[in-house]
Amino acid sequence: MSLAPPSTDGSAVRKQVLVFRELPPDQLARLTAVHDVTVANPRKPDERALFDAALAQAHGLIGSSFPIDAAVLARAPRLQVVSSISVGVDNYALDALQARGIVLCHTPGVLDETVADSVFALLMATSRRLVELSQLVREGRWTHNIGEDLFGSDVHGKTLGLLGFGRIGQAVARRAALGFGMPVMYHARRPVDLATQAPELQGKAIHAPLPVLLAQADFVVAMLPLSDSTRGMVNADLFAAMKPGAIFINGGRGATVVEQDLLHALDHGPLRAAGLDVFATEPLPLASPLRTHPRVTPLPHIGSATHDTRHAMAALATTNLLQALAGERPAAVYPPAHA
Length: 339
Ligand SMILES: NC(=O)C1=CN([C@@H]2O[C@H](COP(=O)(O)OP(=O)(O)OC[C@H]3O[C@@H](n4cnc5c(N)ncnc54)[C@H](OP(=O)(O)O)[C@@H]3O)[C@@H](O)[C@H]2O)C=CC1
Ligand SMILES: O=CC(=O)O
Description:
- This protein is 35% helix and 14% strand.
- It has helices at residues 25-32, 48-57, 70-74, 94-100, 112-128, 130-138, 167-180, 194-197, 210-216, 236-240, 259-268, 289-292, 307-325, and strands at 2-3, 16-19, 36-39, 60-63, 81-84, 103-105, 160-163, 184-187, 205-207, 219-222, 247-250, 273-276, 296-298, 333-334.
- The strands form two sheets. A seven-stranded mixed sheet has the order 1-3-2-4-5-6-14, with helices on both faces. It has a seven-stranded parallel sheet with strand order 9-8-7-10-11-12-13, sandwiched between helices.
- The longest helix has 19 residues, at 307-325.
- The protein is globular, with a radius of gyration of 22 Å.
- It binds NADPH dihydro-nicotinamide-adenine-dinucleotide phosphate and the ligand O=CC(=O)O.
- NADPH dihydro-nicotinamide-adenine-dinucleotide phosphate binds at residues 87-88, 108, 111, 115, 164-169, 187-190, 223-227, 229-230, 251-253, 277-278, 301, 303-304.
- Residues 17-332 form the D-isomer specific 2-hydroxyacid dehydrogenase catalytic domain.
- This is D-glycerate dehydrogenase.
- Keywords: Oxidoreductase.
- Belongs to the D-isomer specific 2-hydroxyacid dehydrogenase family.
C-alpha cells in the first residue's frame, strides 16, 4: 500500500520510508505527515514486489521480525536509517550497517516490565504445571482429587539463576527477589554495580560464577541477546551442570540454546521442565519435538505482546526514525553511545 503524501508545507524535505511490518494508525500518521510512506510486508507474497520496489528508494525502514541482512541492504542504496520495533537487534547485519554509516535504532526500556511479567508467568506455569492441569479440567478428566503424580514445585523461596542481567533480566530479578523471596544469582560478562543501577536488589542478587549458579539454581532463566558470543551458549555442558529437578526458561532468543541438548536434558538429564517463549526457528516448525513435549510449555514469542507495550514500542520506533531522518540523534540508537 503506497500512502499518498498530503500537500507539502515546504518546511522539510520529504523522504521515502518503507514500513515493513504493520504500524498502529496513529504512528503511521506521524510518518505520513512528513514523509512519503510505503507499507509492504515482505513476508506476504502479494506484497513482496512492492517491498522490493520501495526498498530501492528507501531512506528509512521501520518494522520487525524480518531479517535485514547484507543482501537486503545491498538493494537499498539510499538507506540512512533502520528503526526496529524490537529491542533485540539480531535480525540486522550490524557490520554492513556500520560500514555504510546507516543508523540502527531499537526499543529498549519500554518493554522491560511486560517481558518480565511474561517470563515470570512462564516460570509459574511450568513449576505449578498450570497448562497441563487446566487441560485436564477442560477435557473432563478431573474426576477425583489429583494425586502426588500431578503436584508441582514451589516458586517462593527457591533460587533463581539468571543468564543475562540487563534491563529485562533485572526486571525478572525484582519480581523474584522482592515479590517471591527468591535469592537471585546472575551470570553476565561484567558485574552490575547494584548500588547505582539497581539499589533495590542490593543484598538480594549476586554475580556468581556460572558453575555455581547452575549447581544451585532451581530456576535457570535465559534473558540473553543473540550475538556471536551467545549463539548456542546454553548447550549440553550447561544443562549437565544444572541441579537435578531444575526448570529452564528461555525469554531471550531461541538460538542461544542448542535445542537438541535441551531435549536431551529433559529426557535424560536434570531438567524437570522448560518454558520457552522463543525458538531457533520461528514460527516453531510443526515437526519440532519441543512443540509437543509433555514437560515443555511453549509460547509463540509473546514476551512484549500487550496492547500497551506494543504501542509504546511502535511509538518509540517511530520517534527514533523521525529523529534520525531529521538528522538528530535518535532516542534509542544501537549501539548506545556509552557501549
Ligand atoms: N521474548 C521476547 O518477546 C523478548 C525477548 N527479548 C530478548 O531479550 C534480550 C535482552 O534484552 P535486554 O535485557 O533489554 O538487553 P540488555 O542488553 O539490557 O541485557 C543483556 C544482558 O545479557 C548479558 N550478556 C550479553 N552477552 C553475554 C554473554 N556472551 N555472556 C553472558 N552474558 C551476556 C549482558 O551483560 P554483559 O554485556 O555484561 O555480558 C546483559 O546482562 C534482547 O536482546 C532480546 O533478544 C527482548 C524483548 C522481548
Ligand atoms: O523479541 C522481542 C524484542 O523486542 O526483541
